[in-house]
Task: structure prediction
Amino acid sequence: MSILKNFNGIADKKRPALLLAVLLLMAMITGCDLTDNGGEENNTNNSSEAQVTGRSVIESPEMNMNTAEIHFIDVGQGDSTLIIADNEAMLIDCGDNDKGMEVRRYLEKQGIEELEYVIGTHPDADHIGGMDVVLYNFYCDTIIMPDGDPQTKTYDDVINTMNNKNYEITYPKVGDAYKLGSGSFTIIAPNSEDYSSWNDFSVGLIFDYGDTSFVFTGDAEGAEADIVKNGIDLSADVFKAGHHGSRTSSSDALLDAINPQYAVISCGAGNKYGHPNQEILEKFSARNIEVYRTDTQGTVIAYTDGINITWSCTKNESIPPELEDEKTTEASLYILNTKTKKYHLTSCPSVSKIAVKNKEESALSAEKIAELGYEPCKNCLE
Result:
């Protein structure tokens, strides 16, 4: 099923190939600046068998490889990764509560209309905060989340939206494989029901496209040891660094098992947690792992034709946490409540109480919004 709109008159099936060709040329000329170890080579040609130990690579009948795109979206201090493979798309995490609309706009910009899979790795707000917005605005075929209720408003918002859309949760089972275009992904975590931290319940997966592979472990910490021991071959080209580059993740044992050429760290500029940890950066450097970071390079995109991987970065998208409200206000964005016909500043406390189905974002002037029949919120605009 094609879920991408035509792009500037180019047929959907031709867009990935054209993008790859353009980016290959760009990479040859300039490339995307690498972090920490200054590597110049940004292609990989690591081969692997179609069937690897402990994980199934689902082959489509024709195995007509085109291009897969892995977008590590800059959502500040949080996670959100869009994978597009041969006109099918999946989303891993959706950023924090205030990033849902931003993720929605990013997906729309990519021409996404449907998502084959949405994965909420674990119920922390910086991973599923924007998930209710995504689920409400896009048709989602399969939603994968770990079992358990953290009893938070963020989680309740997601569940309420799922109920309103008649969606059900698919619980992850290690070893299960799912097809995406002519690629596939295999669940590698969680491996136990007895963890004491939600981070360790993170859904982990390895995405295979041709001879290239990408590993995602959410915020797993001590549970990395179970991932290493579960019998699945973890060797991959790219590792989405665990827990935003925290020193409690990306263990030596896991890195030995993956042996990646690249690592991508998703974190916010100037975040209060000190992510990424300097020890982790030094560990990556010692292993000659080339590092990409959303806090310094913006949204990071990997393109693969199943053999080679090329990179593209959109810089200056990450916003320091203390500047986010200021930038939004300067842009004169308003939040509309389509039920009450009130409009609010984005910083208004009432915004968090508006049901997703009644919430819209508008860049129109206050005068134009008033002409549409809306009244200003008495708390934030009068």
Observations:
- The chain has two domains: 12-322, 331-376.
- The radius of gyration is 21 Å.
- The longest strand covers residues 183-189.
